Structure prediction request, 361 residues.
Amino acid sequence: MKKIILTGDRPTGRLHLGHYVGSLKRRVELQNSGEYDKVFIMIADAQALTDNADNPEKIRQNIIEVALDYLSCGLDPAKSTIFIQSQIAELCELAFYYMNLVTVSRLQRNPTVKTEIQMRNFETSIPVGFFTYPISQASDITAFRATTVPAGDDQEPMVEQTREIVRKFNSVYGETLVEPEILLPENCVCQRLPGTDGKAKMSKSLGNCIYLSDTAEDVRKKVMSMYTDPGHIRIEDPGKIEGNTVFTYLDAFSRPEHFSEFLPDYASLDELKDHYRRGGLGDVKVKKFLNSILQQELEPIRTRRREFEQDIPGVYRMLKEGSDAAREVAASTLADVRRAMRINYFEDEELIASQAARFSR
Ligand code: ATP
Ligand code: MG
Prediction:
């Protein structure tokens, strides 16, 4: 079986460090590994509209931001098909058929959707489109026959829902769709990077993000005001590592060579943590270290972004080409689906002949 990747992001803002460690960085590695037959990267504008119906301009403006973030991180249109979800009409039709295979109570059990409904204060006024977005995501994944979905752990329930739909579809209509698997980051702190405020998840909707395109000065300010251990007041106080966002980020971003480069007094992250726990190590020193690491990681991304910003029409052309190519693939899956469901009446000569025989009796 072919190995195919499908993943993407909602164009609700620029991409942040959570996207980067949760999915984006891995995508680039997988794209370059040569192990995958196809890589599809989707800008999920239709999904973003499910909770931004009254603000389509926000989505329209952010498509180019996400595309620039992709290119500056190293996604390469020569190796990956980058496309815009709303341009692939076939995805809606697939979702329409899949809706018949999922119950309302199954959707209500989705823990990610539950949290997101709370976060958005939807309470009883949940848009139907938002409620059903896990089904729409199943169309996105299956339309491209994806085997692998590199994503953060908030996507686990979506991929599980997709697998259920695939199994149900295949058992009712015959073997047609491919069951995908999620590919979580190996480093478990990267599966759900917390926000700079210490909240469970860095998320555009929570406004606690360090963006890939933030200036060096913005990144520094955000790092210097990050949430640490509120009980660690004086330098000599013992400090906590658990729930201390600065240390979580060090778990996510630091590598052994960073110590000799930026903080030669310590040989490893364990040594730094031990000192913090004992007391006598100030937050500012640790934050400065984290800042140096992040600046080193982000500087080349910022530089490449400025280059791509010089040719915006070219970026839109790339998205158009990607969307045209993606549409062909989705159309071929949809044709298989229609055939399996036997709603391909006009190409079904047997059906037409048997009906003719029935009426000529
Ligand atoms: P929104 O608030 O609009 O939902 P978001 O910040 O949650 O935005 P998405 O576009 O929903 O971002 O997520 C895109 C991808 O990035 C998904 O694979 C998701 O798992 C991953 N991701 C997003 N935030 C994080 C995070 N804090 N840690 C790890 N992965 C993340
Ligand atoms: Mg999200």
Notes: The radius of gyration is 24 Å. The beta strands are 4-9, 38-43, 81-84, 148-150, 181-183. The chain has a mean pLDDT of 96.
